[in-house]
Amino acid sequence: MGKMKRKTSLSDVPLSALQEKSLLVLYTLNMEMIILSNEGEYRDWRGVLTHAPVKKVFKDYLRSAKNTDFMESIIAEWKNVRGNNIESLQKILKEIDRYDIYEDTREYFLMDAEAYRTKISKPLFDRTDKGAYIITGLDRKHVSLGLKLIIYDAFLMYSEEDEDFAALIKKTLEEKYGMNICTKDDFLGGIPFEHDVAMTLIGTRCRRLIIVLSKSFMNCPADVFISKYAQHIGIEKSHRKVVPCLKEECEVPSNFKILFQLRYFRDGKLFNFWQKLYEAVAYNQTDKDLNEDEFERIPHKEFYQIKVPKLNPSPQEAEKKQKSNTVCVESYTEKHELPASSGNYSIETVMKLAPLPPSESPQSTTELSMNKKKQERSLLILYTLNIEMALLSDEGEYRDW
Question: Which intervals hold domain TIR (predicted)?
Fold first, then answer.
């Protein structure tokens, strides 16, 4: 079997990967050259500074500074520029006609790149005694107390534009329902590749993945990939994994159209967004996809109580009740010789004018109806005495009417 071909592209390797040998060769550019290139370029640190993607203020400062470590300063500033890479530095060396430096550093650059790729291929996670990754601040706290790492109720994914809405979701589920919700902001500092960490956490220690769907979310390929990854886990384990939420109307990707989406803008009397979200995320006894022997599931502090609203009575029922109350009030005022105008008062008002013992208080429509039925049943029982009995009692009494 032949050797694997060595990767020569350096566009993915940042300047921070440069090691001592490479830097020592680059620092020779601090020596100013009298002869310019064919294009009139400086062939030393001044040429590098001209083409480096650093701020003009820094360039002006360095040109006027009495300094001998020019290249060290340029590289240090360049490292702060997003997307910096070694390949861009190589192009500048060619542009200023310093092929000697280009050739002298090429092998060193490849060695630096190989060391860098090897380093990042091994996530810099601390681990528990059982080998589980310590990813969040809460993980660190549990380990320090000798406890198991917890199983999160959900991982919350969102774009930067939807951060306020995501914060509201996290706060409501944690403070009102006692859930444990994790976001990328909970990761410990210094952990590389946050998307790789999120995939590890979602696959091993998060029961659900809450996604705030929006146009900005769909513009991030990495977030979309993770959501599809979580959906695949759910299908593979026959387990509900992804809970899509929409803050406002937007185009829903085809892979999420088969799932019921929770729409925040529909929240109202017939659709309680927070109730639906809690029920979608809440732990189910059939959720056995995560290893509870290794991790700890913290029960919710309180469970959501479904409140059934009291419906207002229909107009017919309200009118019937009003008539019944009026009859009660009229009979009550006649008995206690109250002014005739008191017949227009409510039951409560009349009771204040002439209070009665509870047994004599006016009855509601329901109570009157129940009493009438009781009377009818009593009479039916008494009417059975119409049947004449042949046998007499022990005292010689008739046992019928």
Answer: 150-281
